[in-house]
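Q: Got a minute? One more chain.
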Amino acid sequence: MRFVGYRLVAPFYETMRNFFFPSISKAQREFHRLDPKLVTKIAVVGGGSGDILYPLLEKFKNATIYFIEPSESMMEKARERFGTSRRIFFKEENMEDINLEDIDVMILPFVLDIIPERKMKAVAKSVIVSVKHKGFILFSDFVQKQDAFSKLKTFVLYLIFLPFRGKLQMSLPDYNLFFDNFKHKLVSEKNFSNKTVTSRLYQVYKD
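A: Always. Here it is, folded:
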């Protein structure tokens, strides 16, 4: 699942995102009760242009970070910023083909909202194979139950991205189509911008 058309929007992505939803940046910087001393391997799935890497490098000083982004243009932007870091490995891959092992924390920063519902199960399988038993998923995204104004802003954001994604998305997908594929427990939750945006920390249990 690649987003080739994002090349045109990559230079302006963060500006547009922060204009419509400034709380997104706050949610991406919420790490809840994760202990940096216990985190050695982090994977960021759908990291966009890479601004999320700033707080990650600062918070988790001993961790290796795998940055996974299917869009070539977004990946180029991230490499421009952090390509010299020895702690970051860049993987331009589909979200269904992550192919990592023993990840302590898998970060999903505002990525489930753009995944088609028919792809949720495949992405979930790829994520869970990569996370270790009792590892964590750090999920941040739009809250599904929004007020009318928030729904309008989300729809406008989807309209902006219509020329680059090639289709119009009318509403948020059902996140349960992702989370119902594995055993997990909600550890912590924090909401932003009048409960429009959420950050949740889940612990994963594997048989």
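A: The first strand starts at residue 41 and ends at 45.
Q: Perfect, thanks.
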